[in-house]
Amino acid sequence: MELTLANVSKSFGTKTVLEGINLNIQPGEFVAIVGRSGCGKSTMLRLVAGLDATTNGQVILNSQDLHNRINPNIRMMFQDPRLLPWQRVLTNVELGLLGSNSKVYAKQTALQILRSVGLEDRAYDWPAVLSGGQRQRVALARALANRPALLLLDEPLGALDALTRIEMQQLLEDLWIKEQFTALLITHDVEEAVVLADRVILIENGQIGMDIRVSLPRPRARGDIQFAKLVEKILARVMGKTQLQPTESNYALSSLSA
Ligand SMILES: Nc1ncnc2c1ncn2[C@@H]1O[C@H](COP(=O)(O)OP(=O)(O)OP(=O)(O)O)[C@@H](O)[C@H]1O
């Protein structure tokens, strides 16, 4: 699904967070958004999701203005899994299929997507007995249950330990290749952006400061010299030229959180 932001601005009172953003994302593209804390990344995603209204400009999905409304073809995933604790895993995933009129279909589809995130055997567990990584897998299954055309990811792996995070990146990439949705990922981790994205976009001063294509073959190897060079280049750009240039040891810890 093609997504276009046409001259999008967003202000909160007198504070302008985004100003005249123009962006086109092709169907099936994986785009990562990076930038310093508070630069407006989540605000941009919320505008695309229809959770917040633009001050100016349009969010256009397949030539149709979204008119600041929620669209069933768009799903969003957050840093916290936001599962209903009083519902079993299966029911939580079925919630992603709201609108489906057959219970049998909803159950079969939910079990199928749970299988694809490796959790079919946990379908009748409560969320509370799952690990943090497993809960995020359930959240991913719920987000993908109705096969959205556009998946918005607001730092969904940010709270996971390093190994689980790498596993989840692989899972996300596998599902993106299989399901062919368009993905828009906010991340503070430049390595994560370069592992997953076709394009990495930097937001700074309310505008797009950089839009860089990642043409490395997939799956991408962190140990690869081209990979490391690209991470270093992007990180240096995000940090600004007046900052210390990242070295091999500090770009491995490429968190941009303030
Ligand atoms: N509802 C709101 N009312 C007022 N100001 C807001 C609101 N939402 C966001 N802001 C402000 O907009 C700016 C951008 O916030 P946003 O959450 O989009 O940043 P971010 O880049 O996602 O930050 P982080 O990386 O820390 O999550 C911040 O200064 C924030 O305080």
From TrEMBL:
It is found in: Cell inner membrane. GO terms for cellular component: plasma membrane. Residues 3-230 form the ABC transporter domain. Belongs to the ABC transporter superfamily. Nitrate/nitrite/cyanate uptake transporter (NitT) (TC 3.A.1.16) family. Its main location: membrane. Keywords: ATP-binding, Cell membrane, Membrane, Nucleotide-binding, Translocase, Transport. The keyword DNA repair does not apply. It is a peripheral membrane protein. This is ABC transporter-like protein. CDD domains: ABC_NrtD_SsuB_transporters. The lineage of its organism: Bacteria, Bacillati, Cyanobacteriota, Cyanophyceae, Nostocales. It comes from Richelia sinica FACHB-800. One of its GO terms (molecular function) is ATP hydrolysis activity.
